[in-house]
Amino acid sequence: MTGAARLSAQGVRVGYGDAVVVGGTDGLDLDVVDGTVTAVIGPNGCGKSTLLRTLARLLVPRHGHVLLDGRRLDAVPSREVATVLGVLPQDPTAPEGIRVADLVARGRHPHQRWFRQWSADDEAAVAEALAWTDMTGFAERTLDTLSGGQRQRVWISMALAQGTDVLLLDEPTTFLDLAHQVDVLELVGRLHRERGRTVVMVLHDLNLAARYAGRLVAMRDGEVAAVGTPHEVLTEDTVRDVFGLDARVVDDPVAGTPMVVPIGRHRPATGRTPVITGVTEDAPG
Amino acid sequence: MSAPVAGRRPLRAGPVSAVWRPRTAFVVLGGLALLVLVGAASVGRGEYPIALADVLRVLAGAGSRGETFVITQLRLPRVLCGVLVGAALGVAGAITQGVARNPLTSPDVLGVTDGAGVAALAVLVLAGTGGSAVGLLAAVGLPLAALVGGLLAAALVVGLAYRQGLDAFRFILVGLGISVALVSVTSWLLVLANVQQASLALIWLRGSLNARGWEHVVPVAVVLVIVLPIAIVLAFRLDALDLGDDAARGLGERVDRSRVQLLGLAVVLAASACAAAGPIRFVALVTPQVSLRLTGGSRPPLLASAVAGALLVVTGDLVARTVLGGEVPVGVVTVVLGAPYLLYLLVRRTRKDSA
């Protein structure tokens, strides 16, 4: 699992105030494997976002450090980091009335100077990022006239225009309906396949995580509970240990990736027999 | 492969590049033309009226000796002072609103105005004992005291608000608190003052261009010439800061350092404006927002705000001297214009928040 990881956490311990949220016992180690899509999963409050924000240098670890290309993240000039490592925060704010093309162009900030604000390179990168996310036709629209799904495409387009090899996405699908969640994740998948980008994202939906990430990191209580391919991580035992959820894990009928089906107690009276065998049929109510 | 991006036409020369924004250019140039006209009209007004054409001829260096004296020695400094003070306030407001990402912010919120007021009043009331001493203090000591007072108050606000970083909302709250405290000190000083000092103080506290000479013009001009270019360079960082702390850090910006530097520039501009003309309120609040709407961008533009600020102060002074008559301080006019606008902004914001 180690090898030549460009981005890795080495014994990091992160907290807010007195509380340690991540790496409480003896620090957390994690290698982000190059050229993969990694999804960080885990129950609420397990420290997924905290870990991602630490990798993105939005939080400074109390102990340990994050390495980028063998150098400590806090020793590399901020602007230089921003040409290798892109971040899409969970809830980015856009200035009122900003137009799509202008927002995407903000992604070029680390490549710009005050006297060089729209070079030919900038223009090419922005045009390509817009085209790639199918937002070219929206370039002159203001962001507030777009739907939530379209807005998320614009933010991803901005991250794309930044042109970084590594992209960290903090819950890129929250607040989106299922169709737009799939839409955004398809985009992430293409980023990886067609561009060879390394992506780390925090996701809540286990089935989507298994579908779109080649590698899963399951977290519990600020520690890494399991790392590996979706088939290695999403087992019935791990789901029970990490999420405290009794579930069956079956093959996704479309992609063949593991699919988690919670057992629960409720059975609606559909009059149909469950397709999944082996689930004990509790009396409803 | 490099298809042009709609709405972002490039403007390139060697290593220098920018987006061509015709609307902003039009607003800045149109505003400058208007400023020259209003300024010339203002220069022409007075006990000895001079026609607009004659004013322009004198400014071009071809007037009669009498007119040239009246204009360059008596009238022009007042108008120029208005132009520079207005420009400094406009830029200071644009920077503050850009950093705070809040249209209701202005350098007033940083305590600059009230700090300057307290310091100026302290000089007037505690040191000035009437007669020629007041005249001397008004010429030299008062502007200096106002400058120092404004800078100190702002430093106090930023210092108190800084907690492992400078949060915009916190500095606004701290600034409001400090301002209230300073206003009460002002009231206390007014109570201590005798009638003559109090009337002088009240005129100063409204912000006025009365009897402003070249000695008031030069310091503001020097500050603007130094600070405006720095502000234009640093304002580029607002492109990242606009998107919130996390996204700005992701784009490689050192958020807190940039915010403190930018606010420092705004404070210096506002304090020197205050030193030259007293606290002319609402200019720094209103003109960046008006410029923003005129240029149609997503953040108050620096140059357009400078022009709009100059235009508002010079026009306000002209209105005060003609429509209202006598020597009404320009600050009274800007407050009358600015207060309804502030209410409009508040109402609009509340509607949007509840929508």
TrEMBL record, chain A:
PROSITE patterns: ABC_TRANSPORTER_1, ABC_TRANSPORTER_2. It is a peripheral membrane protein. Pfam families: ABC_tran. GO terms for molecular function: ATP binding. Transmembrane segments: none annotated. Keywords: ATP-binding, Cell membrane, Ion transport, Iron, Iron transport, Membrane, Nucleotide-binding, Transport. Residues 7-246 form the ABC transporter domain. CDD domains: ABC_Iron-Siderophores_B12_Hemin (cd03214). It is found in: Cell membrane. Gene3D superfamilies: P-loop containing nucleotide triphosphate hydrolases. The keyword Magnesium does not apply. This is ABC transporter ATP-binding protein. It comes from Actinomycetospora straminea.
From TrEMBL, chain B:
The keyword Ribonucleoprotein does not apply. It is a multi-pass membrane protein. The chain crosses the membrane at residues 24-43, 79-96, 116-137, 144-162, 168-195, 216-238, 258-280, 301-324, 330-347. Pfam families: FecCD (PF01032). SUPFAM superfamilies: ABC transporter involved in vitamin B12 uptake, BtuC (SSF81345). Keywords: Cell membrane, Membrane, Transmembrane, Transmembrane helix, Transport. It is found in: Cell membrane. InterPro entries: ABC_BtuC-like, ABC_transptr_permease_BtuC. Coiled coil: none annotated. Belongs to the binding-protein-dependent transport system permease family. FecCD subfamily. This is Iron chelate uptake ABC transporter family permease subunit. It comes from Actinomycetospora straminea.
